[in-house]
């Protein structure tokens, strides 16, 4: 792997940023943890320049293991048994950008342990990097595009519960679930700035859609032939979108199922595979490789559910009335399927993996999808019947976290494809977080049983 000081353009990137934004005094150096939250440190800009010139950058290794609420769980030899050691990180070239949603001038830059002399095996970006390196050795290059749905809420909670966002012009609640274009006009100020802020971060955000839920929207990204960058875009988009929403008096949330009566929010991932000559591998030989890739994804899907449904709430999304599968399935132009094959020409033939919740970790979601596709290409099996052929076709998958982590922990292909150390750490993190979440007596429990 390549160390930080071997990137000749990194120092010039920091110096060019300082020249363009002389008012920026601090840079947030950020990295995604296992639950999909950013952690890191706020560095004076001159110290970032020193790091770019070769000074070491270290952050505690166990930051990657933080739970959703920021706490640590005893996992194997980590956390409470290892002395909480520091681990090297590197600056990711091309990610130093200004932040527009803070009150004071600020910059941010992604960091990672992947590409260092001692990468952290369970860091999400490193997990994806290993999968991509394995595919690259086989002459396979994925092209990826994420789509993320999210909800806007009023900035103030009502008795701890979210409230519909209000139209800035007439103060009406956005309580009419539909896809009318007028909803984009009513919330155009915040939505347009979300796209602009994402573009400033280097994210190719483009199409905006008013989704079916009250206050629900979707913003698409361009297709990217760098899998790590595509996942970076999804992670950075979530951060900037939350910041811009607060600036406009709203909360933005990627929570999978905020309302039981309304559609959940998904992370849809479009993936095509190309060889070294630029040929779409999925399109050749009467789309045989496409079917094999679909079969592999369906085979591993029940064993990757802790990644696709990353928390207790995320499992509520499955089996809903609108475009949310309850079994692993596939189909052509079918939004009820977990794996949809959009209509396209041979050059752009791809799968659309629709199962993950919007609050899943994009690095891990993409790593799991690519591992499934690779498994399918190797196994060479035909998939189950498509939904176009049989509306009842499908494979059962776990619907709760404890069952899901058991299915993931013991699966040999998942362990080999994503790394056994990562699988152990991830499953134990999710298991303990679920038990921690359930360790509370709710008001409803008293009403029912007291």
From TrEMBL:
Presence of the UniProt keyword Ligase in the record: yes
Keyword Transmembrane helix: no
Keywords associated with the record: Ligase, Magnesium
Record-annotated GS catalytic domain positions: 124-450
PANTHER family associated with the record: GAMMA-GLUTAMYLPUTRESCINE SYNTHETASE, TYPE-1 GLUTAMINE SYNTHETASE 2
Family membership: Belongs to the glutamine synthetase family.
Name of protein: Glutamine synthetase
Organism lineage string: Bacteria, Pseudomonadati, Pseudomonadota, Gammaproteobacteria, Pseudomonadales
